[in-house]
Design goal:
By secondary structure, this protein is mainly alpha-helical. The protein has helices spanning 3-32, 39-61, 70-90, 102-130, 137-155, 159-180; strands at residues 34-36, 100-101. The protein has one domain (3-180). It starts with a helix and ends with a helix.
Length: 184
């Protein structure tokens, strides 16, 4: 096995656990029902699912690169850990069989999960500057705009700002996916 394969297994486990938590949370939400919906929260959950897949694809993109020093691996592991924590924070804990109030959860916890998501995006800017093929002005523009949207969603609790930030992030993720994910 190559050095990349060992590292890839470790990073894949972290991302798989994060994605599994999101999927289990969605199944629990379906099972217990919802008393009040939150479009922004559902949007952030979808965003996290995309970021889990993107994290794995982005790491795979660097499989032929000689970047795999201990420092770089630790940085990628830290970035994956932040992604993992964000996935746990964005998904409400569901105990029992009572319907969940997603709007109340979003109002009470948005700053927690948006803070870790903001940290993840900042770490991603650094990773993108290290990975070949991602050091472009377009990538910096997408990252900067995403960070600005996250900061605005963190600052203002207005429903319109929250929905606008989610829609903006989705548009930027779509642009990013078309431009930088080779499989597309």
């Amino acid at each position: 096995m190559t050095q990349f394969e060992y590292v890839s297994v470790l990073l894949s486990i972290v991302v798989s656990l994060a994605l599994a938590h999101l999927l289990i949370g969605i199944a629990k939400i379906i099972k217990v029902g919802v008393s009040r919906w939150s479009i922004p929260l559902l949007g952030w959950i979808g965003c996290m699912a995309f970021l889990c897949v993107d994290y794995w694809i982005s790491n795979w993109h660097a499989h032929a690169e000689p970047l795999w020093s201990l420092g770089f691996v630790c940085f990628l592991l830290f970035s994956g850990a932040v992604l993992f924590v964000t996935c746990w924070l964005v998904m409400p804990d569901i105990e029992g069989t009572e319907a969940i109030d997603l709007a109340a959860y979003h109002a009470a916890n948005r700053r927690k999960y948006l803070s870790t998501l903001l940290i993840y995006f900042c770490l991603s800017v650094i990773v993108n500057q290290l990975l070949p093929g991602f050091q472009s002005p377009t990538m910096l523009l997408i990252s900067g705009a995403s960070i600005a949207l996250l900061v605005s969603a963190w600052i203002w609790k207005s429903h319109a700002v929250q929905v606008g930030a989610v829609v903006g992030i989705y548009l930027l993720m779509g642009w990013y996916a078309v431009m930088f994910i080779p499989a597309l």
